[in-house]
Design a protein that fits this description.
The complex is a heterodimer. By secondary structure, chain A is an all-alpha fold. Chain A has six helices and no strands. Chain A is 80% helix and 0% strand. The radius of gyration of chain A is 18 Å and the shape is globular. Chain B has helices at 2-24, 31-50, 57-80. Classes of the chains: A mainly alpha, B mainly alpha. Chain A: Residues 15-175 form the Heme-copper oxidase subunit III family profile domain.
């Protein structure tokens, strides 16, 4: 019987279970957003004008750059690169907090329109993952154990992976 | 390292193109598929290069297929809306 070569997963299996679970949660949330949008395209388009796509685009570039730093940090087992990646996450959160505060100042809440219910839910849940990722990156940078760095950095890439879907769906397609 | 830098350049380029298209691009029915198509490219790059699935090509193919299906449904919902 011919033997099929078994492929080894990079990173720990449990981190992949987490990555797939999170992708399913965010994926379902974004599908729900798009499905509800069908019921009120003009309302969603109007609501999306309150967001700043260019700022969100800059945030995306910050996150993918931070992902590069994290990947280099994992390759070199370097605390400096991992902390730089965490700094990129902090810069992303700063942009996000600025966006939320301007919306709150305009008295836009989760109750304003279904668009904002999904917006706060999905961007808030993503931001919670960014906060967790920053803490994890800081911890693995200090401990410098390669297995922990590998898992921590994989979690950080999950944050990137989810955002590249959240960004166009919430910020750009609402207005499109 | 070269692969990571290439991946990063693709990600930055695709993110900039996505933003530019949405802000100054023409409002056509093709906008949603193009924006989500670029997001799919970015997801594939993150899976292959950042998450290192290029080391396991068959697993990468399977995950890419699942992600592609997600994007097909998202594009369909986007076009209907």
């Amino acid at each position: 019987m011919a033997q099929v070569a078994r492929e080894e997963l990079p990173h720990d299996l449990m981190i992949w279970v987490l990555i797939v679970s999170e992708m399913l949660v965010f994926g379902a949330g974004l599908w729900a957003f798009l499905a509800v949008r069908i019921t009120d395209p003009p309302g969603f388009a109007e609501a999306a004008t309150h967001l700043h796509p260019v700022s969100a685009g800059i945030g995306t570039i910050l996150l993918v750059t931070s992902g590069l730093f994290a990947a280099i940090g994992a390759q070199r087992n370097s605390a400096r690169w991992l902390l730089l990646a965490a700094l990129g996450g902090l810069a992303f959160l700063w942009l996000k907090s600025h966006e939320w505060s301007s919306l709150i100042a305009a008295q836009i809440s989760t109750e304003t329109h279904p668009f904002f219910t999904f917006y706060y839910l999905l961007t808030g849940f993503h931001a919670a993952h960014v906060v967790a990722g920053i803490v994890i990156l800081a911890i693995v940078a200090l401990r410098r154990r390669s297995a922990e760095i590998s898992a921590g950095v994989a979690f950080w890439h999950l944050v990137d992976l989810v955002w590249v879907a959240v960004f166009p769906v919430i910020y750009l397609m609402g207005a499109a | 390292m070269k692969e990571l830098i290439t991946a990063w350049l693709i990600l930055v380029g695709a993110s900039a193109a996505t933003t530019a298209l949405a802000v100054i691009g023409p409002e056509t029915i093709w906008l949603a598929p193009v924006l989500l198509g670029l997001a799919f490219v970015k997801s594939r790059v993150i899976l292959a290069a950042y998450l290192e699935l290029r080391q396991a090509p068959r697993i990468l193919s399977g995950v890419t297929l699942a992600v592609a299906l997600w994007f097909v449904i998202a594009i369909t919902l986007g076009v209907i809306g």
